[in-house]
Amino acid sequence: MRGKIIILACAIACVALGAAAAFETRAGRLQAIKTVGIISAIGEEISLTRAGLTGLDNVAQTASISAWGLDELIVQQATKLLSGRFHVQPVSYRRAAFAAIRDSAVAPVNLLRSDPFKELVRSDVTPQGLDAYIVITRARSKLGNGRNVEGVGLAEYRTLLADYGLIHALYEVRLIEGKSFDVIEKRAAAPLDNTGTVRIAGPSGPIEATFDGAGSSERLRAAIADLIARSLPLTLGDMHLIEGQ
């Protein structure tokens, strides 16, 4: 028994030492970063997803919201947040190419695969040679009975007793080194509030306004923009990319 305890203690110590070494390596790589470029590709379409007791009408619908300029807004907000620590340089990229990758590499099933965004940063972003690139793309979560929700959208969940509605802006952030194109860190934006009846793993909130009639598109855009504005500082702070975090 004593031998098993010693072996377990050694294993725990090795894990702790490995984690500490990884943290020190990551911290050193962060300290070396001076120039960054920001890539955003989450905001070209909005989805409407129904889950729960929906009968046969449960196929997700999508609509274009390219006119909202959400990706431009995200780049502006991220630039403002990061400028205190880094020199943020404008970059050009094919947004559609980044948006076309729908399978989240943050999911556990993908951890052993090469991150699909590495090659895109290498081949599709100009200028090359910055110290790092910050890539912001759609993330995915489960809703209720297992339906997937992704990116920007509205979700309805029906039960026998009530209907629930959510708006969501699910995204993940990768920090990619600009010479080796290694992924230094990747993190999905966390929920802002987990007190609701229906919860998803990312920035979301209850539908508190009617998105019908005149001005509905602008009200919905404002609600989605608010989710992003409140969650982005928290996500970048969790990644220690904001000065003082």
Say what the CATH topology of the largest domain is.
Answer: Rossmann fold
Strand arrangement in the largest pleated sheet:
4-1-5-10-11
CATH class of the largest domain: Alpha Beta
Order of helices and strands: HEEEHEHHEEEEEEEEH
Tell me how many strands there are.
Answer: 12
β-sheet strand percentage: 25-35%
Pick out the low-confidence regions: 9-23, 108-112
Note the overall shape.
elongated
How many helices in DSSP terms?
Answer: 5
C-alpha-based Rg, rounded: 20 Å
Signal peptide: 1-21
Keywords: Signal
Write up this protein.
By secondary structure, the protein is an alpha/beta fold. The protein has two domains: 1-31; 35-238, Rossmann fold. It contains five helices and twelve strands. The chain has helices at 2-31, 70-82, 95-99, 117-124, 216-238; strands at residues 35-41, 45-52, 61-64, 87-88, 132-138, 140-143, 147-150, 152-158, 163-169, 171-177, 183-188, 204-206. Keywords: Signal. Residues 1-21 form the signal peptide.
In short:
This protein has 245 residues and is an alpha/beta fold. 32% of the residues lie in helices and 27% in strands.
